[in-house]
């Protein structure tokens, strides 16, 4: 690489300056990449914030669904308990019905025997 003599670059007091073309080209490439990466960083930060909100909302939904599942399980167990209680009531009712039926039949039989014995005694 050939260096230009120092005297070839003139220092000016205004806003213009002399730099080698390759340095200017590299500086423009670096500036362009910097601006691109800055924009990409902004997009990534926005994406992270949005994804963070999405994850938070999904966690909230999962918690709500877990609570609903627990409630469904509790309701199912309550329903099963209710069915068991009704089954016990039905069994108890059947037992009492059979007992009442036996007592009624015994009453009919004893009444019938009483009538027959009263007729036999009266004759």
Question: What do these coordinates show?
Answer:
With 123 residues, the chain is mostly helical. The chain has one domain (24-115). Helix content is 83%, strand content 0%. The chain has one helix spanning 21-122. The model has no long low-confidence stretch (mean pLDDT 89).
Topology of helices and strands:
Elements: H1 21-122
What are the defining features of this structure?
123 residues, mainly alpha, 1 helix, rod-shaped
**H/E topology pattern:** H
Low-confidence stretches: none
Q: Radius of gyration over alpha carbons?
A: 50 Å
Euclidean distance between termini CA atoms: 154 Å
Estimate the strand proportion: under 5%
How many structural units, i.e. domains?
A: 1
How much helicity do the residues have?
over 70%
Main beta sheet:
none
The tally of helices reads 1
Summarize the structure.
By secondary structure, the protein is mainly α. It contains one helix and no strands.
């Amino acid at each position: 690489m050939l260096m230009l003599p120092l005297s070839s670059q003139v220092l000016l007091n205004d806003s213009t300056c002399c730099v080698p073309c390759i340095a200017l080209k590299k500086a423009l490439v670096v500036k362009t990449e910097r601006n691109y990466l800055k924009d990409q960083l902004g997009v990534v930060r926005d994406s992270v914030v949005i994804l963070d909100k999405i994850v938070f909302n999904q966690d909230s939904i999962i918690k709500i669904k877990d609570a609903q599942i627990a409630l469904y399980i509790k309701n199912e167990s309550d329903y099963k308990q209710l069915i068991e209680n009704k089954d016990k009531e039905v069994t108890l009712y059947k037992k009492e019905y059979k007992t009442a039926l036996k007592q009624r039949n015994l009453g009919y039989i004893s009444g019938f025997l009483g009538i027959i014995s009263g007729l036999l005694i009266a004759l």
